[in-house]
Write a structure and sequence with these properties.
The protein is of the alpha/beta class and 476 residues long. Helix content is 20%, strand content 29%. Helix 3 (83-93) links the parallel strand 5 (74-79) and strand 6 (98-101). It binds uridine-diphosphate-N-acetylglucosamine (UD1) and magnesium ion.
Length: 476
């Protein structure tokens, strides 16, 4: 199986002026290669490592989202293990991405070599750089990548001071400039004493990459093609190499489930800080779980133990009360959600609307000012402005085979514990009596009652109780 439309999917044209960064005197084109072929055997998983999630998004989605602000001309993912699934995810994340399958995994240098033919040609008059990243290193920041692009060196490596450098490639400097990367296994005692390590992220001038990658050999302890050899090769070719430093956290790679949990915790800490700095109150930040794409407007307040799944946007001044769970939904300005509410995909909550405790909303538009305050299920529905859905009222949207819609007009009042059997429409200003099972449309302004009629039998309760007590006494 090959996924190699080499140059076809990568436009050799610049699609927008944004894709040429203006640096100093010249123009800059950035292409991105993400290495994602590895199995990740320590994950003990059927799923390729880069598809495991933190912040409710695959590891590789974090990498692709970190490069997005750099407006790369081209994103190439090198895939291998679980290729079909990785290709599907990458294509969904970045419509123009190219996936190249690496048959035999002969090392990071070999992986980059597979991507080279897919790199679009140079653009006249523009400097062309290639960022090489790992799909399992999700926390690298866009700002850091921008610093690497801005570096004047032909080869720029992202380095960090490791608390424990064991296993990492060491960045060997002479007179303050980078001369080689030596992998742990190949390092002697002096090199192992170096704590400045290779994160794996590199930014290389496209021409340098094209000329040096084919020169990489396998003369090392693992017998693999190491992309890191490009530093020594560049020095031999009298090209400049530099190190850009970042915090160790940014370089955190995921290798096993413990590493995934560590990366999740680091991501949550970072995302919470980002949300707080956007003017949102998190009353107990350490208990709120956010997704990569969570957006919350300023002056919103999020209470303790709220979970944001993917695809949630919350406008300004909304309140999300404790223990609510939101995914794939939109909450408008000033709306109040929870406590203990569940907003599922397709929930659109209008301005100032109220969704209260133990209310589940799915695939439904709740217009501004509407209230669903207690114990309801509203699915495949449209609720009009200022409508009131009473406690325990539900839409019966599923007939066992198909889903049907419920439409409720503006200012309608649905009495408690009613069941609205879809498809059904309740007009503007209509009322439904409590406990009704509504199977036919209710016209605007009408009152519908659909339940057993009440009859009162004077004195019967008292007489019944006396009889029961007498029966019990006779049994003693
Ligand atoms: C690599 C670096 C090391 C650095 C470390 C940081 C090399 C030779 N070494 O080592 O200097 O300190 O990362 O974590 O680059 N991959 C492929 N195809 C392959 C081999 C790897 O796509 O044939 C991908 C993997 O899926 C992974 C990435 O490249 O995403 C890195 O490979 P890995 O085997 O983890 O490299 P390390 O030994 O950790
Ligand atoms: Mg690794």
């Amino acid at each position: 199986m090959t996924f190699t439309p080499p140059v076809a999917q990568c436009s050799s044209q610049i699609r927008s002026v944004n894709q040429i960064n203006n640096i100093g005197l010249g123009l800059m084109v950035v292409d991105v290669i993400v290495l994602a072929a590895g199995l990740g055997s320590r994950m003990l998983s059927e799923m390729p490592k880069v598809l495991h999630c933190i912040g409710q998004a695959p590891l590789i989605a974090h990498v692709i989202s970190a490069v997005a602000p750099l407006t790369p001309r081209c994103v190439i993912a090198v895939v291998g293990h679980g290729a079909a699934a990785v290709v599907k995810t990458v294509s969904a994340l970045h419509a123009d991405a190219t996936c190249i399958e690496q048959g035999d995994m002969l090392g990071t240098g070999h992986a980059v070599a597979q991507a080279l033919p897919a790199l679009p040609p140079a653009v006249d008059g523009a400097m062309s750089k290639v960022l090489v990243l790992f799909g399992d290193t999700p926390l690298v920041r866009s700002e850091t990548l921008q610093r690497m692009i801005d570096s004047p060196a032909a080869v720029t490596v992202l380095g960090f001071e490791a608390v424990d450098p064991t296993g990492y490639g060491r960045l060997i400097e002479e007179d303050g400039s980078l001369v080689a990367i030596v992998e742990h296994r190949d390092a002697g005692p002096a090199e192992r004493a170096v704590t400045l390590c290779n994160s794996g992220v590199m930014c290389v001038e496209a021409a340098t990459l094209r000329s040096l990658v084919p020169q990489i050999g396998t003369d090392n302890a693992k017998g693999e093609y190491y992309v890191t050899d490009i530093v020594a090769l560049a020095r031999k070719a009298e090209q400049s190499c530099a190190v850009i430093r970042c915090a160790e956290e940014e370089t955190l790679g995921v290798n096993d489930r413990a590493g995934l949990a560590t990366a999740e915790a680091a991501f949550q800490t970072r995302k919470r800080a980002e949300i707080l700095s956007a003017g949102v109150t998190l009353t107990a930040p350490e208990t709120v779980h956010l997704a990569l794409d969570t957006v919350i407007g300023p002056d919103s307040v999020v209470g303790p133990f709220v979970v944001f799944g993917p695809g949630v946007t919350v406008e300004n001044g909304a309140e999300i009360l404790p223990f609510s769970h939101l995914e794939g939904c939109h909450v408008s300005q000033g709306a109040r959600i929870g406590p203990h509410a569940r907003l599922r995909p397709g929930a659109e909550i209008g301005a100032g609307a109220r969704i209260g405790n133990f209310v589940e909303v799915k695939e439904a538009q709740i217009a501004q000012g509407a209230k669903i305050n207690h114990l309801s299920y509203v699915g495949d529905a449209q609720i009009g402005e200022d409508a009131n859905i009473g406690a325990g009222a539900i839409t019966c949207n599923y007939d066992g085979v198909m889903k049907h819609r419920t439409e409720i007009g503006a200012r309608a009042f649905i009495g408690s514990n009613s069941a609205l059997v879809a498809p059904v429409r309740i007009g503007d200003d209509a009322m439904v009596g409590s406990g009704s099972v509504i199977t036919r449309d209710v016209e605007a302004g009408a009152l519908a009652i659909a339940r057993g009629a009440q009859t009162n039998k004077p004195g019967l309760a008292r007489r019944l109780m006396e009889r029961l007590r007498a029966i019990k006494a006779a049994r003693r």
